Amino acid sequence: MRFFLYTYIGEKNFQKSVEKGIFGAKGSLASERTKFFNLKPGDIVLIRDSITKDLNLLGYGRVIGQPFEVYSDDDILWEDEERKGVLMYRLRVKVDFNPDFEFDIDDISWEDIGKLGFRNQKGELMENKQSLGRLFSGNFIEGSEAKRLADLLKVKNYQGSFEKEEEDFSDQKKPSEGVREDEKPKEKIEPLQQGVKKHEESYSIDDIDEDGCFFERDKLEVILERLNTKKNVILQGPPGTGKTWLSKRMAFALIGKRIEEKVKAVQFHPNLSYEDFVRGWRPVGDGKLALVDGPFLEMIERAKKEPGAKYVIVIEEINRGNPAQVFGEMLTLLESDKRKISEALELSYRRSEDEKVYIPENLFVIGTMNIADRALALVDLALRRRFAFIDLEPALGSRWRYWVHINFDIEMEILKEIEDRILMLNKKISEDSSLGPQFQIGHSYVTPTSKIENGRIWFRQIVETEIGPLLEEYWFDNRETALKTKEELMEGL
Question: What's the CA dihedral at 227, 337, 295, 297 to 10 degrees?
């Protein structure tokens, strides 16, 4: 027996699958399709409900056909399956939802699943709800792990095997006989998803959500869609809204795998020049000058060598430099309709008389921008026309409270109190005529990175050392307002 764990959005979608005898999945990423097409007759699909916070297993079934793909609008299985403007592969496989064996799925909890000792591809124990939830993003469970899961589910009347087939050595030497020590097969470590290297883990919007993203899934899908169509996106928002955190994860989701080598992060600053970013003369060891490619041209060349793969350059605080000066002629080539060799232009510094450069279609740009920095000028209109701008706002709420509670052991009552105080502060900032919504305090300020012993003491420290100094900068001409607002945040703690 091999389990395939998946998430459906609500019982209504699951009932449609049962009526049609079809297990449906959808995915715009190649990695999601690869997982699905590894399904084989005899595999057991185990489906949970994504709407409920607690583990709610909707049902199960046995695969009885080969996976296939459908395109017609008549084949839409779920209500939310067709997303406007997003290429959505509709994946299907025939399933018997009334197999000749039974599961006891009614009383299984996340705590029960956690006790089974599953580990992710990094070998880390999956023991909280967030990490365990990732099991249901299309992972296979087999061998001894499948046996433990089946025992938990109290499988009745199952006649098959839980073990993998043994390798056949009948026509070759046995592994341990007549073989040098360095030729002996190494102990096999089976990750949840077979065949995925540690540095090439599959990555999707689901993984961003599990990593602790508090934005709605629709927001993430819009970012991904705009990246695919516009090629260049800027995430803008107040301080602490997770722009840097999200930008790199969106890059991995676009690529479909967590491949660090395909993503390069740079930071703009007032002293950054075209020569630093694109190409310029640099001193070399013998006292001479040489033309050296900057990070942008390096990524262009990498992307050209592998046209079938996606590459991303992440530019942090893109508005802290002078984009028109830093990009130079590259600013024109950024446009999505100029990503072809026929649009190539000469560089300011050429290696040869006939050298021309273009930006390939498979190179994407994600920028971040803090809209509260009053020291920065307005964004160049030429840059604005070439990027899609997406607003990120403080994302406090039930998602934030739940994630912080589960991962850092802060009581829900304290988290609600912190949330109310930050919301009150943001309302005051937004209504101030000298500030506005762009100066709100983001959720990152009150999202811990390690276990917290006392939530109230921790929040006071955050206000004293991080939020307080920021408020003094906001109301630099009215220190009394800054101090009073700071005291209101900590009152009664």
Answer: 150
